[in-house]
Structure formats: structure tokens, C-alpha cells
Amino acid sequence: MLQAIHHIAVICSDYERSKKFYTEVLGLEIIREVHRMERKSYKLDLALNGLYVIELFSFPDPPPRPSRPEASGLRHLAFAVSDLDQAVAHLKTHAVDTEPVRIDPYTGKRFTFFTDPDGLPLELYEQ
Length: 127
Fold this sequence. Notes:
Layout: E1 8-12, H1 15-25, E2 29-36, E3 41-48, E4 51-58, E5 77-81, H2 84-93, E6 102-103, E7 110-115, E8 121-126
Parallel strand pairs: 1-4, 5-8
Antiparallel strand pairs: 2-3, 3-4, 6-7, 7-8
């Protein structure tokens, strides 16, 4: 039945700020950007390594969504990286703070968390 995850949709409160974060800081590629005038909204389709992964939406005055402490719903979005230290250093050059690096007790892999401009929890997981 299911074949793969098609995309993840993210609603942001400041479209230009989030667009810059996801494209310039995280390096996702723009596939398509659409202004939906009737909804006063943008929809930005983003790809990672050529694969469509994130829809970034803007809406006028979206309500805040609690994400901590451990609110129900989507917990976080994780990105695989080959060199965690390099990825953390890259984020720091863009003034993005990360939590201390942890080790997954089941896999022995290193990981850390950070947030997007709206506080959405994001993870870097070293492969």
C-alpha cells in the first residue's frame, strides 16, 4: 500500500524568514513557488538532493502550535548527515543554536536538535 513519504508540510509565520532558513541555511532547493492570491498565501515546494520533501506554506496570522514540552502530534523532522560536527558548525555560522550532541542508545549514532524560525523541532542524525 504505502510506498514512501511524499512530503512534509510546514506552516510558517514569516514566509521570507522561513524561506531563507530552509533554502540558504539548510540548503534545500526550490522546485516551485506559488503565490495563492485568493488565500493570501505562498506555497514553496522544496527538494533535498533532488527529492521533493517539504511544502512550506504561509497563511495570514497562523495560530502557534505547541511543540514543547513533548506536545502530541509531530515530534520533529530529522535530517540525515554524514558529518554531524560539520553540520553543527554550518548552523552556528548562521546563528542557529543546537542542543548538545547526544548518542542514540540503540544505534550508537550521534544526533542533535535545533529549531526552525517558528520553533519547529528539527534533528540532525549522523549516518
